[in-house]
User: Which sequence fits this backbone?
């Protein structure tokens, strides 16, 4: 792998981007004038449809720049990773055509993947209850990782952010909205939290959006457009930069990914122990109920003792077998 794009808000969004990258001449998310540029020089199939553009390194980089420059994808705050210097140089040469107007975060990592295969992906070589020596070995391996192996595949980079959000909302410390100053009731809305360390600013989702969009319009010197989602801005409380994608990642994880939150914050064992305790109590109650039913059933039974039957001597030999059975 030589290049990777990350930071998509969802899996569906990533699939849309991939399809548009492979079909820039068909995607309606690309403006008509830019689609016309992608169509130049393309022939048509027998069915009348345009042929797909030929794959080349220069062509793919041009299509990637075009997609990251349109509003449909440009406001997602995507990040482009390059793992080969030659590919990165082709990308840089394309930047001279658009005069550097494209605002996108570019990360370069030209070191080879020195970690062993599978480490960092499937957790090979470490256990959940390892000792300090194992943890030191894992940290040393993480420092040696490069390229795709160094990419975070979990929520560890925002662990402190997630823990802060859980603590604020569990103890109902949200207070008033940082933007509109209205009181916020716990569990009654979508509340976004400032991702900066030490800041506990909480606000309504739409209030955050309006605030950051106004800041963008002020920076650009315009009266604001038809955008709904911002890209970045400053927190009204701590005055530090916030990224909309980070705030939405934490909010989505808090609302829809409670299992991932428990795993991230090491809550799995506590919940499992509580579940096992409840299950044991349920079994004990069921056993006690069954024992009570057995006692009551035994009390209702009438104890009968078979009585010996008195017969004459003449009939004893004939009914001896019957008497034995009856007595038993």
Assistant:
């Amino acid at each position: 792998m030589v290049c990777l794009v990350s930071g998509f808000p969802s899996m569906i969004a990533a699939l849309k981007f991939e399809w548009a990258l492979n079909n820039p001449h068909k995607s309606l998310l690309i403006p008509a004038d830019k689609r016309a540029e992608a169509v130049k020089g393309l022939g048509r199939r027998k069915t009348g449809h345009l042929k797909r553009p030929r794959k080349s390194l220069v062509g793919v980089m041009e299509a990637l720049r075009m997609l990251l420059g349109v509003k449909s994808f440009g406001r997602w705050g995507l990040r482009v990773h390059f793992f080969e210097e030659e590919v990165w140089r082709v990308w840089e040469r394309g930047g001279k055509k658009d005069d550097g107007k494209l605002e996108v975060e570019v990360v370069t990592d030209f070191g080879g993947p020195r970690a062993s295969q599978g480490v960092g992906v499937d957790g090979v070589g470490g256990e959940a209850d390892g000792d300090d020596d194992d943890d030191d070995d894992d940290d040393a391996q993480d420092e040696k990782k490069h390229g795709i192996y160094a990419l975070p595949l979990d929520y560890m980079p925002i662990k402190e952010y997630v823990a802060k959000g859980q603590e604020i909302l569990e103890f109902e410390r949200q207070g008033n909205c940082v933007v509109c100053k209205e009181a916020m009731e716990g569990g009654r809305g979508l509340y976004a939290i400032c991702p900066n360390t030490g800041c506990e600013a909480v606000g309504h989702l739409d209030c955050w959006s309006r605030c950051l969009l106004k800041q963008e319009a002020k920076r650009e010197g315009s009266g604001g457009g038809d955008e709904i989602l911002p890209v970045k801005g400053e927190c009204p409380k701590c005055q530090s930069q916030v990224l909309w994608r980070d705030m939405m990642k934490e909010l989505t994880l808090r609302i829809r990914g409670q299992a991932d939150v428990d795993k991230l914050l090491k809550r799995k064992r506590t919940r499992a122990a509580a579940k096992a305790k409840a299950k044991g109590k349920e079994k004990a109650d069921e056993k006690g109920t069954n024992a009570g039913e057995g006692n009551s059933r035994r009390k209702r039974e009438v104890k009968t003792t078979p009585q010996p039957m008195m017969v004459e001597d003449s009939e004893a030999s004939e009914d001896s077998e019957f008497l034995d059975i009856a007595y038993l």
